[in-house]
Every structure is written in structure tokens, then in C-alpha cells.
Write a structure and sequence with these properties.
CATH superfamily: q2cbj1_9rhob like domain
Number of domains: 1
Number of helices: 5
Largest sheet: 8 strands, antiparallel
CATH class: Mainly Beta
Radius of gyration: 18 Å
Length: 283
């Protein structure tokens, strides 16, 4: 099993004890999303350098979701952590893994992948409502995304979350971000996405103003979206995805995102540690 070195674990534990009060963990369990202020501020400059490298040298899964003729740019990319040193350093040496284990209630934190999202100034394109889990080749309840603000984000441009949606009995149907069409050809296992804006009295939508270094913590089952970026400056978000003890591989009805070609697993298998290292095991 791959684990962080003892000195790193001690640093993680110190950060964990100061940044994750019990009431925050309880709030996360109840609502499925919380804001963690300031913890990752020391990592911001390194992550910004990594994002600039990613923009200059996009990976094979990079995408631009801005429609032709629209203002701005909505760029995303993922699974570049092994080739971008700043991302790799964050995965192994930041307190993210320890925080993930505590929030998930897991004895381990296994790294799944990283995700870069950049909305340049005056980008109208919004991120549609979705849950992450239907896109992924995993299933389980112990999951976490840590979305770090690399720029100040006013509340009107900040990601949004439906409180309690991580407890819904079925997953919502995944869609394509470019045209919002169905992601899988066979999707009868999913429920229709409810009309969050049109039926707002039924839903408690969480949204926070973010300072640089603030993080949003949310599970793969939590329904979320993000507005366009109406600000005069860019909005860079760096997200890492983590899984815990009860998470296993699952075969979806089509190509997942990320696709992980050649993963060579069957339903129920634990994720292979040569691709997805276990960073945190506690003491």
C-alpha cells in the first residue's frame, strides 16, 4: 500500500485538527457540501503555476465548453497530476488526503483524479446541474471533491449545491456539458433532473462567496452547478477527487468521464493502487 511519509502525515494531522471542527463534519454529513475557509491558501501560488502549465499544455481529455460566438472561455481538463509537478506535490503533501478521510469517515483516502476548471472573464456558459458519480467508474458513499478557489469568487459566480441531494435514493441522469444531451445511450437507471430554479421552494441551494484558498467540500452524489463568470477577472478552480474504504469499481452503461482506458477491473473491485494511490492511512 502506498502511504505518505510520517513527517507528512504529522503535518496533515496538525492541519486536520485545526481546520475541521466536528460541527463542520456534521454539517457535511447532513447537507453534502460545506465551505472550508483558508486551509489551502499556502498552496495557491503553486497550483496557479500548475494551472498555467495545464492551459499551455492541455492533456488528451481537455475540453472547451464555450459555444461558438459566445464571450469568454470555459476550459476544463483532468488526469494530468502525474505530469504536472505542482499538482503531484499537492496530492502527496497537502492536507487534502487527511481532510478527505476525516470528512468521508474513512480509514483511508485514495486519490481518484484532479480536475481543472477555468472560466475566463465574461464567460456566459454555466456548468449545468449534475451529480459527479454517474460519470465515474466508481460507486460507494465515501467520496469527496475538494474544489479550491485560486481567485476570489463573488457569490453570484460561485458553485451551487442542493443540500441533502447526496441522500436521494437514485442518481440523476448525466448530461453532456456542451449541449446538455444524455451522456449514456442507455440511462434507465437514473431519474430525471428536477427543475431546481423553476421549483426553488422545494430545494435548499447552498452558495458561498469564496476568498483565495477557500475550498468547497462535496460528495460525488451531491447535485451541483455553477453560474457563468460575469466578473471582470478569471475564475480558476482546482479540484481533487478522493474515495474511501467502501468505494469500488462499477461498469457504467457507456464511456465514463474520465474514461480510464485499460483499467482492467470488474464490478466490485477496489481501485488499483498503481493508478490511484492511497495517500492517507491514519496512524
Amino acid at each position: 500500500m502506498t502511504v505518505a511519509k510520517a513527517g507528512t502525515l504529522q503535518n496533515m494531522t496538525a492541519a486536520l485538527e485545526t481546520s475541521l471542527p466536528e460541527e463542520l463534519v456534521t454539517e457535511y454529513q447532513q447537507k453534502g457540501a460545506v465551505r472550508l475557509p483558508g486551509t489551502f491558501e499556502p498552496w495557491v501560488e503553486r497550483l496557479r503555476r500548475g494551472v498555467e502549465t495545464n492551459l499551455r499544455e492541455p492533456g488528451p481529455y481537455a475540453g472547451d465548453h464555450t459555444a461558438r460566438g459566445d464571450a469568454g472561455r470555459f476550459f476544463e481538463d483532468y488526469c494530468n497530476w502525474s505530469r504536472i509537478p505542482e499538482f503531484r506535490d499537492f496530492v502527496w503533501h497537502s492536507p487534502a488526503a487527511a481532510i478527505a478521510a476525516r470528512i468521508m469517515g474513512s480509514g483511508t483516502a485514495q486519490f481518484f483524479h484532479e480536475h481543472v476548471l477555468v472560466k475566463e472573464a465574461t464567460t456566459a456558459k454555466r456548468t449545468p446541474w449534475h451529480q459527479d458519480l454517474p460519470y465515474y467508474c466508481v460507486d460507494g458513499s465515501q467520496t469527496l471533491s475538494i474544489w479550491i478557489a485560486l481567485d476570489p469568487v463573488p457569490i453570484e459566480n460561485s458553485p451551487q449545491f442542493v443540500a441533502g441531494s447526496h441522500l436521494w435514493p437514485k442518481l440523476t441522469r448525466p448530461n453532456r456539458w456542451v449541449d446538455e444531451g444524455d451522456f449514456y445511450a442507455s440511462d434507465e437507471d437514473f431519474i430525471d433532473l428536477p427543475d431546481i430554479e423553476g421549483d426553488s421552494d422545494r430545494f435548499d441551494v447552498l452558495q458561498w462567496e469564496l476568498a483565495v484558498g477557500d475550498a468547497l467540500l462535496f460528495g460525488f452524489r451531491t447535485l451541483h452547478a455553477a453560474p457563468g463568470n460575469t466578473a471582470a477577472s478569471r475564475r480558476r478552480g482546482f479540484s481533487t477527487r478522493w474515495v474511501g474504504d467502501d468505494v469500488h469499481f462499477v461498469q457504467r452503461p457507456g464511456r465514463t468521464s474520465p474514461p480510464f482506458p485499460g483499467i482492467d477491473l470488474v464490478d466490485g473491485d477496489r481501485l488499483r493502487e498503481d493508478w490511484f494511490p492511497v495517500i492517507w492511512t491514519g496512524f
